[in-house]
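User: Tc1-like transposase DDE domain-containing protein, Perca fluviatilis:
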Amino acid sequence: MPKIHPETKVLIIKRLKTRSTADVADTFNVSQRQVQRIKKTFEDTGDVFDKPRSGRPRKTTAREDRLLARKSKASPFSTAAELHETWSPEVPVSTRTVCRILSRNGLRGRISAQKPALNKRQLKNRVAFAKAHSLLKGWMLEKWKKVNFSDESSVELHHSCRKYCRRPTGARMDPRFTQKTVKFGGGKIMVWGYIQYGGVREICRMEGNINSLKYQEILATSYIPNHKRGQILQQDGAPSHTSISTSKFLKAKKIKMLQDWPAQSPDMNIIEHMWGRMKEEAWKTKPKNIDELWEACKTAFFAIPDDFINKLYESLPNRMDAVLQAHGSHTRY
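Assistant: Predicted structure for Tc1-like transposase DDE domain-containing protein:
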């Protein structure tokens, strides 16, 4: 509830002599409850000013707080301790106070999102692709339904990510509160897959380094048998995907491609969400080796509901619009 200026309170008291509480509240754009409190305070004390409140007074001034907020905005990756060292208020304060001041200014500490680095050429290509596949160019859901999205992904046996826990003071190294890690992730597998609107999907395990011939074998066994006339295959610009050999193979098989796919664009490839969900479910089974990991991934991939895939397709027009709104930069997807 916003604080009312003392001069406004005086005007409210004057208006109450001739008008109702509801009329005064509407006139000054405040609630009736606030008007009633001001009236009662005036009747009890003969004044409209707030009484001095108990509690420790603030150590920093509003000007010092603004300076700290500007320093944080200029260097968003600086910690509270680092900002504390470069900020010099008249009264010494703790790092915790620095955190509270930043929070009051809407600058709360968060884990930064990890996104691919984009150069000017890539930004330009992302905008060009989004424009060419926007609603204005006729790319509605019905047209996106014809596109089959594909990609590769690596899955570690033991994944590592930041996990929060609640523990007593001094128990940081207690085994109950530590996250166990394995060097190099304990091994990993590479998978390739694709999805269609309606829930049709396929996944296969990839062995060793993938060259053009291996990629063509994957397409021949895992994609082409399910390919229908009029469908379009989306793939990224990996060398094995865009080589002369693969291009001739796709042309011979009469596979139509989604042209000019921009590099560094996982937010535009909806199969990335499939990989994320598949990995989460696979890791929950706690596989002991990479063969068990592959079985868990395969089970999790085919267990994802068809409706989940359909909703990803439905988000594509909004994804193109988001890329345009961001001028080719990262989007929330």
